[in-house]
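Input record, target 12 of the design panel.
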């Protein structure tokens, strides 16, 4: 009696139908960039922050204005003189002012310039987050697909083992126990198949939701594809990169600088201001024949000096407030650095552990295959029972599922490591893309 296991390639072909329309990871990421609401919101915020940064420049520039007034007067004197008169006034003034010394404006100007740095860090974080989210959804679909393929292959193998047990029982070479054990294992694998199909359905919906595409079909990992070893070096090297380039740390750093400038603005409440003012205007008086007409043109230029003397302790309390907020921002920066450092180390060791698991599972797969072959042979010659073969089959396919998942976890872990270090870019998807087919 010979037992056969459905070749894995056939099972995968049965599950991954329709791959002629499959999309690569880069293609789906490009699609997600134009669809993902979170990323598009970050882009809008980026443009808003740049505009806010430009607004700050106005604090150091001159201002100008044009004003005009028109008035009409009707004078009716019902006295013995019976004098009636009508006259009007036309006034137009062009004025301009240039700040010469305004410490608060200077600090506000510097704060505005920091908005550009903040906008860049926020957009960078959003881009990296989108890369990881799309990649995770992509790999989860592939993991679910391969898991279903392995379950189907196992079901086919168990089905053949069940059929063999029934035949052996009918001819009297085995007991009913073999048949019942095979039937129980077949029922269990059937339940696992239903769960795997539902898992795949859910993961596909999640991927479709991420990229805005109906029925996205991701390309699978090539058989025997080498995993990218981009996570080389040691943990401290990655931590140094994270400290220098992490967008989370950059945002916290900018937040501290803005808080420090806010303290400068508050302290400026005690300082004098000096502005250069200039104006030019004309007044036209219009009257009837009995009244005179006067036309005036006036131009002025001068300096306006102001020194605050007392503001009801508002300035002192404002300084106290900003100093406290500055200390809060400093603590926020420390917290961000510690969080990023911990996340980077965790991601690094996760990738290293994942690579070790892949190697171990590859060895376990070979061992499980050998164990299955040995148990099948032993069953044929009567030194192994049916449950031994069933257990060996279960172990082999569980190992295959674990190995497939471990491979995708390593690929995703490498992206998460680069994200934690703040160096993740769209081009980092290219090496992964070349390993897909």
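The sequence produced for target 12 reads:
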């Amino acid at each position: 009696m010979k037992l056969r296991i459905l070749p894995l390639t056939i099972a995968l072909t049965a599950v991954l139908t329709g791959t002629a329309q499959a999309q690569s990871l880069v293609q789906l990421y490009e699609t997600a960039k134009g669809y993902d609401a979170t990323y598009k919101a970050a882009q809008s915020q980026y443009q808003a922050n740049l505009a806010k940064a430009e607004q700050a420049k106005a604090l150091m520039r001159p201002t100008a204005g044009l004003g005009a007034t028109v008035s009409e007067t009707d004078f009716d004197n019902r006295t013995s003189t019976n004098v009636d008169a009508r006259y009007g006034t036309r006034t137009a003034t062009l004025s301009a002012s240039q700040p010469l010394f305004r410490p608060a404006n200077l600090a506000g100007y510097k704060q505005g310039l920091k908005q550009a740095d903040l906008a860049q860090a926020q957009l960078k974080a959003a881009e990296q987050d989108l890369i990881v989210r799309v990649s995770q959804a992509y790999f989860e679909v592939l993991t679910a697909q391969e898991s279903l393929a392995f379950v189907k292959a196992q079901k086919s193998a168990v089905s053949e083992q069940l059929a063999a047990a029934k035949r052996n029982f009918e001819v009297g070479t085995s007991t009913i126990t073999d048949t019942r054990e095979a039937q129980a294992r077949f029922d269990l694998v059937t339940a696992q198949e239903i769960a795997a199909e539902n898992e795949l359905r859910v993961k596909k919906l999640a991927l479709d939701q991420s990229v805005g595409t109906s029925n996205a079909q991701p390309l699978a990992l090539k058989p025997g594809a080498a995993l990218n070893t981009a996570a080389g070096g040691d943990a401290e090297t990655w931590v140094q990169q994270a400290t220098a380039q992490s967008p989370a740390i950059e945002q916290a750093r900018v937040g501290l600088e803005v808080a420090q400038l806010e303290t400068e603005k508050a302290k400026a409440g005690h300082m004098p201001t000096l502005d250069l003012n200039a104006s030019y205007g004309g007044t036209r008086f219009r009257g009837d024949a009995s009244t005179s007409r006067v036309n005036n043109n006036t131009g002025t230029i001068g300096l306006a000096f102001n020194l605050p003397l007392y503001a009801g302790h508002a300035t002192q309390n404002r300084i106290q407030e900003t100093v406290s907020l500055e200390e809060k921002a400093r603590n926020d920066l420390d917290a961000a650095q510690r969080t990023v450092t911990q996340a980077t180390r965790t991601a690094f060791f996760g990738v290293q552990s994942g690579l070790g698991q892949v190697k171990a599972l590859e060895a376990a797969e070979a061992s499980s295959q050998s164990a299955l072959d040995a148990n099948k042979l032993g069953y044929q010659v009567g030194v192994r029972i049916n449950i031994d073969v069933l257990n060996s089959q279960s172990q082999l396919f569980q190992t295959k599922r674990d190995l497939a998942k471990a491979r995708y976890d390593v690929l995703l872990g490498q992206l998460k490591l680069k994200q934690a270090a703040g160096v993740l870019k769209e081009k980092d998807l290219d090496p992964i893309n070349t390993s897909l087919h």
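The radius of gyration is 39 Å.
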